[in-house]
Amino acid sequence: MSNNLKKLNRNISNGMPKEIATTTKQETYYKCTHCGDEIFWNTHKKFTYCKCKKIWVDGCEDYVRVGGNEGDYKVITKINSGS
Ligand SMILES: [Zn+2]
């Protein structure tokens, strides 16, 4: 009986820490397909245009708004593997 319990506990603790680490390190950028400018999602509530002003990003920890037409920008995610 006590053997069964030990097995269960080990399974639960195995899978968890890895998943949390990968999601927090992802960084989202919005890339203009016209001029190639990349804007980071968190602009601290500042309207930020790309070089050709086809798109803009306005974001903070609570929300992210992106301007421009469909196809004017691409959402890209980079994974911060350093530090
Ligand atoms: Zn642009």
Key terms:
three-stranded antiparallel beta sheet; 83 residues; alpha+beta
Summarize the structure in short.
The protein is of the alpha+beta class and 83 residues long. Helices cover 28% and strands 33% of the residues.
Explain this structure.
- The protein has 83 residues and is an alpha+beta fold.
- The chain has one domain.
- The chain is 28% helix and 33% strand.
- The protein has one helix and six strands; from the N terminus they run H-E-E-E-E-E-E.
- A hairpin with a 6-residue loop joins strand 3 and strand 4.
- The mean pLDDT is 82.
- Zinc ion binds next to loops.
- The site of zinc ion (ZN) has 9 residues, from loops.
How many domains would you count in the coordinates?
Answer: 1
Strand content: 25-35%
Main beta-sheet annotation: 3 strands, antiparallel
- The helix content, as a percent range, equals 25-40%
- Which stretches are poorly predicted, pLDDT < 50 over at least 5 residues? none
* Structure summary, number of beta strands: 6
Nearest-integer average pLDDT:
82
Structural class: alpha+beta
